[in-house]
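User: I want to check something. If I give you two sequences, will you return the structure for each one separately, not as a complex?

Assistant: Yes, each is folded on its own. Here is the first sequence with its structure:
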Amino acid sequence: MSEDTTNQFTTCSFVHSLDASFGCISIGIATASFIHMLSFPWWMSMITGQLLLATTLLLLFFPRSILVLCVFLLSSLTFWFQRLPFVPNHIFFEMLIHASMIGTVLTVGACNWKKRLPYVELRAAIYEQMRPVIMGSLIIMYLFTVLHKLNWDFLNPAVSCAVSMHKELAASVPIIPSSEWTQWPTIIGTLLIELAIPIGLWWRTTRVATVIFGLLFHWFLALHPHGGIYSFSHLLYALYAVFLFSSHDNPFQIWQRIPRFGVLAAKLTAV
């Protein structure tokens, strides 16, 4: 096999890996949208909410369609913009992510307008530019979460939201201890965990371990009875995908290489 043929094969494989990742992140944000609807029933009484439901379904069925993705992002931004300023923090964060995604699509599309790229290559180019934006946004979000907790009220066990949330969680899950001795570990542990996650996501060698740790941490938080918390957890689950696979990885081929027992374990863990 000649060097040119080898390079062409490598480039083709790289493009298809990015294309598969494009579909993967589309499915992730679509399922996150469904979870938001389960958590916040506002959409039922609004036309824009019904439109968001329709575009979410479309994106699930056509995850590799650039047009469907754009329509979904626009409908999501329109619906949640109508709810401002009465939206949870993580929904506002998602709005920023969606705005950056649609901005990336428009920018890449404009830059490649005259090249007439095949749709596979166009999706690959979009994801290649979209991935670092999502990664950077998630790391900044975690750091800002730590920053805004650095105040006297959060460090005061009598009024700390970490302590009150822990008590509410313990009331729903009796095996979780809620005695007075848990208050300071809860406060300090929250700060350390939310600082460790962005640091771990920054370094390539620690990303997989950090994602697993983050999945477990947010799964624990999702046990809280407030719907907005498991909505936030699922949003992060969807965005973690960009850290699990490098630009050269095809997520669907990696899934196929996992032994059957591992696939079964992964599905049970997801449930």
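And separately, the second sequence with its own structure:
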Amino acid sequence: MASDKELASLVTADPGLPRPNPTQSYWQHIPHPLANTRSESLPSERDYAIIGSGITGCSVAKTLLEHHPTATVTVLEARTLCSGATGRNGGQMAANAGEEYMHLAEVHGPAKLQGLRF
């Protein structure tokens, strides 16, 4: 297990720049009309600056504007909207969900799996 010092160095390490030419998901091959939305220049002042336009970044921007309609909010994105992890890893499909459920039911009992959804 990593020490507190090792964990602190990992958390504070410079993440570096985004990778050049990342993998593009097939659903991004025809970009959404808003994907390349950009401002001509960055504002010198903002109430809020949000790094990343994924699910979390866009949700935070939406919530801020709903609760503070006069706030100035800027979302910063290295590439196109939702081109990071949100756009690449939005969901997984597995053909063995039924088999897995049966295995879990045997191990834990069907009562414990009442609320589980695949």
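Because they were folded independently, the notes below concern the second chain alone. DSSP finds four helices and two strands in the chain. The mean pLDDT is 84.
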